Amino acid sequence: MARKTTARPAAKTVPAEPVACPVCKGSGQVAVTVRVGRRRRPVGQQDGFCLNCFGSGTDPDA
Ligand SMILES: [Zn+2]
């Protein structure tokens, strides 16, 4: 009795292309306004760590 070859379950393919984080647009960093003093006077902006993707630049919800 010849055993029929069973169809292998199709492996679920995960999309390889990462989706860019919508917050930092894939850069992993966001501009953060720097404030000083009690009046919280803005003195400029600096690059800050993107808290949405944790600096990876890819959308964690994608
Ligand atoms: Zn991000």
Short description:
This protein has 62 residues and is mainly β. The chain has strands spanning 29-36, 41-49. The protein has a domain at 19-57.
Percent range of helical residues: under 10%
* Uncertain residue ranges: none
Q: Indicate the multimeric state.
A: single chain
| Strand percentage | 25-35%
Strand count: 2
Number of helices: 0
Main beta-sheet strand count, sense and barrel state: 2 strands, antiparallel
Distance between the termini: 48 Å
Shape: rod-shaped
Strand order of the largest sheet: 1-2
What ligands can be seen in this structure? zinc ion
From the alpha carbons, calculate the radius of gyration and give it in angstroms.
23 Å
What is the averaged pLDDT score? Answer: 85
Which series of helices and strands comes N to C? Answer: EE
Structural class: mainly beta
Describe the structure.
The protein is mainly beta and 62 residues long. It has a domain at 19-57. Helices cover 0% and strands 27% of the residues. It is built from no helices and two strands. It has strands at 29-36, 41-49. It has a two-stranded antiparallel ribbon with strand order 1-2. Strand 1 and strand 2 (41-49) form a beta hairpin. The mean pLDDT is 85. The structure holds zinc ion. Zinc ion binds at residues 21, 23-24, 28, 50, 52-53, 57. Zinc ion binds next to loops.
